[in-house]
């Protein structure tokens, strides 16, 4: 029997921004992968999955104007981030809190804090290089937003342990932290060599543009990763939350999520037109920052079809036709496999009986099979 399908909303065509790529893309991607592989003790399967991510390409899309040093630090961070994201999928709340304490210790004291955790050693490596050129304000923003990210990962683990699906409003707030976009925005300042005054960075319109970018990046990621996540029963996903709260079917929920993404770009542009002036020098820095947000919107969209995390080898094809076959739930597959192992004869009889009944019900005039004509 053919599996059900659904259609992804067309997010790429709706995005008006040109995709740019840093010419050092291949070099930093390879360097970051080698940097991780020296520390991480991956099995062959997990090593292949890691190499399929291509976080260096995402970095080159989102920081196209970075010089070699700043691009490499950014690529190392994003590559580390995807590794941590995969590790955290297996965390319970206790694990998440333990890792958070370690990583925050490394960020607050990258030279003095001692740890034997791989995630911690890698954190000390990238952040000690970050501090070589970052301004004090953007460094603090990076630390503070990483703290929010790690706390949200712990909350996500707690929700997963309890089988909770948050309501839409709660989810949107939590997703802005679990996305890890906010530390990546602090990286934009590091890359551009700017250090926005706090009153500028905290201005309502700047914050609103950050939220619009964050929402577009994280919600589009939810759309693209939904199939994989639903197959393992993960409900920390915008589409799953919409289905639960709005009582919509899958396709209607996908369309609803796509419309939210479209609204985010419209909000971003409206806020851009309303930005005030802070003087020539700060206005120049703000424009660099806003350009960085724009690069994140378009870069993350296109990278989603380059990485193999969401669509495997079919990324370019999916980008064109947008039709996805729904994966079966792994817990259902496991139950069926267990039943088959426990009593293979009963399992086979059950399958044959189910198929026979289905065939009879689909035959025209099946009732006549049970009637004897009168003579």
TrEMBL record:
Pfam families cross-referenced by the UniProt entry: Terpene_syn_C_2
As one GO molecular function, the record gives: metal ion binding
What are the GO BP annotations of this UniProt entry?
Answer: isoprenoid biosynthetic process
Q: What is its EC number?
A: 4.2.3.-
**Statement: the UniProt record of this protein carries the keyword Lipoprotein:** no
Identify which cofactors the protein needs according to its UniProt entry. Mg(2+)
User: What SUPFAM superfamilies does the record point to?
Assistant: Terpenoid synthases (SSF48576)
The entry's protein name is Terpene synthase
Mind giving the lineage of the organism this protein is from? Answer: Eukaryota, Fungi, Dikarya, Basidiomycota, Agaricomycotina
